[in-house]
Amino acid sequence: MPMRKLFRRFAEATSRQAGKPMAFILAAGLVLLWATTGPLFGFGDTWQLVINTSTTIITFLMVFLIQSSQNRDTAALQIKLDELIRTSQAHNALLNLEELDEEELDRIRKHYCKLAHEAHDDLSAIETQIRDMHNDEGRDAAVR
């Protein structure tokens, strides 16, 4: 089995297991065990070094495993979104936005923020019209 495929399987399995409640319980149990052994070792430098070194190593390795899984998930999600854009009424220009630089993305984001504000203003106007209609109906009913 190629190294890349083996690493991918290991990274996915490790990320999946690390995200489960039992992983947290195990980690918390190990910290609790370490803390309770403090008096046995006189709360010495070596005792502290054990937890510091082990958590640093685990964190260092987990960063790479989780990043690998996240990169794969993000790539798959991006392909799905691209297909939805391609087959919908959306602009095909939105395909591969992740390839643009920050300045181009900001320009496009501002355009969509403007569209969202306009839609919100339209919604507010509609809500005001509905509220006014209900108020008019209430006054008409009171007059009758």
Keywords, please?
144 residues, elongated
Task: Describe the protein's architecture and organization.
The mean pLDDT is 88. Helix content is 81%, strand content 0%. It is built from four helices and no strands. It has 144 residues and is mainly α. It has helices at 3-18, 21-36, 45-87, 102-143. It is elongated.
Concise overview:
The chain has 144 residues and is an all-alpha fold. The protein has helices spanning 3-18, 21-36, 45-87, 102-143.
**What is the count of β-strands?**
0
Give the amount of beta strand, in percent.
Answer: under 5%
Largest sheet: none
Question: Total number of helical segments?
Answer: 4
